[in-house]
Amino acid sequence: MNKNIIYKGAEAEICLSEYMGEKVIQKERITKSYRIKEIDSYLISYRTKEEAKLISEARSHGVSVPILYDIDLEEGIITMEYLQGKRIKDILNNLEEKERKRICNKIGESIAKLHNYDLIHGDITTSNMILLDERIHLIDFGLGSKTSEIEAKGVDLHVLMEAFESTHSKYPKCFEYVLEGYKKEYHGDTNLVTKKIADIVKRGRYR
Q1: CA distances from 66 to 21, 48, 118 (A)
Q2: Hey, which residues are catalytic here?
């Protein structure tokens, strides 16, 4: 099996590989030599299983995510669909305002679908979104979790707000458009979520 590393983070390597004749992405968690071997193995297995569960559950609730092909808990490898689309990070700044708004509305709707079922992505940035077949696909649930806490939902959206401010600062309405889509799709009280985002911003100012 041929594979080549296309991204290496602190926690995992992302490899382009082949599986049953298909081009796939393999996410392989990295062994930490400073950890006791048994603890390291347990953490790799546990985090791999939790990430796969989140992706699978997100898909069952209508969120576009990569299809899972294989999960190796022992090696800490998730084999999944290779999405040959465009990263939102790479295209958002070059769109017409009307199209930018439409894409951001869709992003908001996708996040709301997650939050409706208490699924938290944990690292919502435009690097972790791929536009393919007119759908926003969310990738990399490695920092994700499941919780009904409004705090977690506020943090999820605040991470995206900061991503817009750093990467797409010329277009200040992006997050506003996201919230429009979010409010349309979210089943809970959106005022609680937006209030939590404001609280998080305030806390950051006074740190």
Answers
A1: 17, 15, 19
A2: 123
